[in-house]
Amino acid sequence: MKKALIPIVAAVAVVAALMLASCNSVQISEPSTSDGITVSVQSLDLDKNKNTNSTIFDIKVTIENGSEADLSSVTYLVEYFDSKGELLENARFTYYAENEPLHPGESTTHEQGWQETLDGDVARVDVSVNEYATDADEPTLTFPVVGEYLYQTMGEPHLANIQTEKPLKFLAWIDQGGARRVIETEDPALIDQFINAFVKIKIAAETNEFVTDNYNGAAFIFADGETVGISLNLTNLEVTKKYQEHLYELEDFDEFWGLVNEYAEYPEGEERTSGGS
């Protein structure tokens, strides 16, 4: 995942009726359109982590702007069902425009990978527009402030209150050179460890240091369904707002990322390589 999973308050879209087509033995939805914005599945790969019995997802969607507005972000909902049509789980992901908005008539692709433990096998995947923000909706820039705590400086209420209103699930991923490790847990005691380490992290300094093929991150999933997280380029915080991308060095980060490295696992069949920081 290359972008932070920061929720956007925007107009909520009405999901169009879905017809189904087969893809790799898993049915996927036909393109879904709301308010002129269309999201469709370009590719979908599913695998099993035999160590944890988790399902590994890799999905690429196409987002088309058929509206009359410039779009700064589009959030889409991914729902997965078993062979009986029972909903197994869902996930929300947000595409953020970079450099300039997604103009009317333009399209782009967005790819996400994640791992999740499910009570059954995925037989069908539906993807739909969930919400979006136009260029006019974008707030004034509030990039992190050097010297402040990460969880307080992002301007995100879920993170700001994370010690009292705790998440139900924690996810983190280490993706270096295409080798990906993931930690996923709903264990309250383990989540507390991650929270305690996370709230110690401070913004140390802005940096221009960028490392290719090192896209890491972490996300907290809360009781209201919101997924809020951070994107990392190696171990530097990566923040994109209003088509500007900034990188920040982090202070007191080692404890948090050390926990991620301790619990993150490779999918079954992938060779373990050195590194992972």
Short description:
The protein is mainly β and 277 residues long.
End-to-end gap: 16 Å
- So how many helices? 4
Structural class: mainly beta
Strand order in the sheet with the most strands: 12-11-14-15-16-17-13
Entry keywords:
277 residues, 2 domains, 4 helices, seven-stranded antiparallel sheet, disordered N terminus, 17 strands, globular, Immunoglobulin-like, mainly beta
Describe the overall structure.
This protein has a seven-stranded antiparallel beta sheet, covered by helices on one side. Strands 1, 2, 3, 7, 8 and 10 form a six-stranded mixed beta sheet that branches. β11 (169-176) and β12 (179-185) form a beta hairpin. It is mostly beta strands and 277 residues long. The protein has four helices and 17 strands. α3 runs antiparallel to α4 (254-263). It folds into two domains: 11-137, Immunoglobulin-like (Sandwich); 150-263.
SSE order and pairing:
Elements: E1 11-12, E2 20-23, E3 26-29, E4 32-34, E5 37-49, E6 54-65, E7 71-81, E8 87-96, E9 107-116, E10 124-134, H1 150-153, H2 157-160, E11 169-176, E12 179-185, H3 188-198, E13 202-207, E14 215-221, E15 227-233, E16 236-241, E17 244-251, H4 254-263
Parallel strand pairs: 3-10
Antiparallel strand pairs: 1-10, 2-3, 4-5, 5-6, 6-9, 7-8, 7-10, 11-12, 11-14, 13-17, 14-15, 15-16, 16-17
Helix pairs in contact: 3-4
